[in-house]
Amino acid sequence: MDILRHFWNADTWDGLPRGHAVRYRPLGEERGLRYAGRYVTLGAHGDSYVEYLLKTWLLGCRREAWLRGMYDGAVGGLRRQLLRRSSRSGLTYLAHAKLTGPLKRNIGHRMEHLGCFVPGMLMLGAATDPEGPESKRAQLDRAAARKLAYTCHQMYRRQNTGLAPEAVHFNPKDSTRDWYIEPEDRYYILRPETVESLYYLYYYTRDPLFQDWAWEIFQAIEAHCGTAGGYAPRPDVRHPTQAPRGPMESFFLAETLKYLWLIFQPEDRLLDPAKYIFTTEAHPLPVLGEERCDALGIARGGQDRPRVSTGKYLAGGQHVALEQIRGVLEGGARKRGGNATASAT
């Protein structure tokens, strides 16, 4: 939470975080966290930040209004700056930007499979919008979620294996094709982001279309990724005759199969995403109850600005914490007879 508080005053580009990373300055008036870099993306290195603004707000009994405000600002920037459409089929996709000056930016049109979590995030945000789930803002987010989910679905359906590549490159001026796939992006490593979004879409709409899409993906995985010992990536999603090979990533079990399992549960067993917050690795965390939020000091009535941070860990105090922990560890070692040693580096 301390890190998110520092981002309250950080420079953004139309509400979106600037850069793949952050830089910490330990001294001076500029002490604190700052965005580092010039890339604005909801793909690799930039995906979880906006998502966690929303989910942290939900976990904290929806009291920290500044978190929701930062999320809504980022999603507004997403709609204005990064949502684009292809010329041929009118597919909505996520672009990214490279900031080249105060008022200049170059738009890139490579959409990663990683970005296919966004439709689910938008559905969750719309369902919990403080202005109401039928507000204009919520309706815009739901419409964008459906369009992006359709694009992610097409990334699967248009391949000979029924599996999506790591990324596709859109050409908004090309009327003959929506996208092309670079050789280095032709693989599929059992990623979960599309089926994650399909779960949110199904939960909030109960439209069986999203179950159909999820079933198609599951069948493609079964047909083209199964091995004697489990499942493996496809080196090229265009060629169904190639054998799968490579490691079965842990997210396949923790996320891909979990969301596929959830989406086909009876209605009375579906997990409400606003009551059980799924982390980026699909671990469900129950929303804190009101008593727990009170105990944590999260004030009722909403917080429009971040509470003042102690700075214990972000203001150069890490060494103090480590020394205290070292003392506890060494004290514990002495109590055990001095046979154990402990150190912190």
Q: In terms of per-residue confidence, which ranges show pLDDT below 50 for 5 or more consecutive residues?
A: 20-29, 308-322, 333-345
Strand runs, count: 16
Distance N to C terminus: 25 Å
* Secondary-structure-derived class: alpha+beta
CATH architecture title of the largest domain:
Alpha/alpha barrel
Number of helices: 10
CATH T-level topology of the largest domain: Glycosyltransferase
At the first level of CATH, what is the class of the largest domain?
Mainly Alpha
Shape: globular
- Run of helices and strands: HEEEEEHHEEEEEHHEEHHEEHEEHH
- On the 0 to 100 scale, the average pLDDT is 83
Share of residues in strands: 15-25%
Q: Major sheet: order of its strands?
A: 5-8-9
Largest sheet: 3 strands, antiparallel
What is the gyration radius calculated from CA atoms? 22 Å
Q: Into which percent range does the helicity of residues fall?
A: 40-55%
Q: How many distinct domains? A: 2
Offer a few descriptive terms.
Glycosyltransferase; 2 domains; single chain; Seven-hairpin_glycosidases; 345 residues; EC 3.2.1.-; mannosyl-oligosaccharide 1,2-alpha-mannosidase activity; 3-stranded antiparallel beta sheet
What does this structure look like?
Strands 5-8-9 form a three-stranded antiparallel β-sheet, with no helix packed on it. A three-stranded antiparallel β-sheet has the order 10-11-12, with no helix packed on it. A two-stranded antiparallel ribbon has the order 1-2. The C terminus is likely disordered. Strand 3 and strand 4 form a beta hairpin. Helix content is 40%, strand content 15%. With 345 residues, the protein is of the alpha+beta class. It has two domains: 310 residues, Alpha/alpha barrel (Glycosyltransferase); 31 residues, no CATH class. One of its GO terms (molecular function) is calcium ion binding. Its cofactor is Ca(2+). Belongs to the glycosyl hydrolase 47 family.
